[in-house]
Amino acid sequence: MADFMDIVKGRRSIRKYDEKEIPAEHLNEVLEAVRWAPSWANTQCWEIVIVRDQSVKEALRATLGKGNPAAKAMIDAPVVIALCGKLESSGYYKSQSITKLGDWFMFDLGIATQNLCLAAHNLGLGTVIVGFFNFDKAAEVLGVPQGYELVAFIPMGYAAKDSPAPKRREISEFTHHDKF
């Protein structure tokens, strides 16, 4: 297994995939990483739809915003993971939102997504997080019930090519001490 920082630094957004299928044990390991993601009061507010059916992937691609660079990935990746969140669960106490920003599910799903993507990368799989699409139409395609929100698509598969690391800001450019 790779060093954790190598995994973090090596993960890229992959938009071109080989046709090779993902072994069931790899998919299960990626889902296990989601299972163990921390969440507000252990609400585990995520629900995942695993899409393999080509016609469903094509219907989802049709919901993407014009010019979305992940359009080809939605079709070519052997698996597209649709990440949904349960509303009015995370960040709630006695049916009341108790955070300034309201429903906390997006934060929890962000953690789950990061776990998923890092676990996939550790297994030699590529991912890209897709968030530019018509959420209502895509939710209809997937049959997402009321009380849940579709948040992101994550095409996943074996990368067709390696990508270089993008430039990153230095730590000193984004850290502040004692006050902003």
Architecture overview:
This protein has 180 residues and is α+β, with helices and mostly antiparallel strands. The protein has 7 helices and 6 strands; from the N terminus they run ααβααβββαβαβα. The protein has helices spanning 4-10, 24-35, 54-61, 71-76, 105-122, 135-142, 171-174; strands at 46-51, 79-86, 92-93, 96-97, 126-127, 148-157. The strands form 2 sheets. Strands 1-2-6-5 form a 4-stranded antiparallel sheet, with helices on both faces. Strands 3-4 form a two-stranded antiparallel sheet. A hairpin with a 2-residue loop joins strand 3 (92-93) and strand 4 (96-97). It is globular and about 45 Å long. The N and C termini lie far apart (38 Å). The model has no long low-confidence stretch (mean pLDDT 96).
Write the layout of secondary structure elements.
Elements (H helix, E strand, L loop, with lengths): L3 H7 L13 H12 L10 E6 L2 H8 L9 H6 L2 E8 L5 E2 L2 E2 L7 H18 L3 E2 L7 H8 L5 E10 L13 H4 L6
Antiparallel strand pairs: 1-2, 2-6, 3-4, 5-6
Helix pairs in contact: 2-5
Q: Count of DSSP helices?
A: 7
Give the beta-strand count: 6
Write down the Rg.
17 Å
| Biggest sheet descriptor | 4 strands, antiparallel
| Order of strands across the main sheet | 1-2-6-5
Helix content: 25-40%
> So what's the overall shape?
globular
Percent of residues in β-strands: 15-25%
Overall pLDDT metric: 96
> Structural class, from helix and strand content?
alpha+beta
Order of helices and strands: HHEHHEEEHEHEH
Poorly predicted ranges? none
Distance between the termini: 38 Å
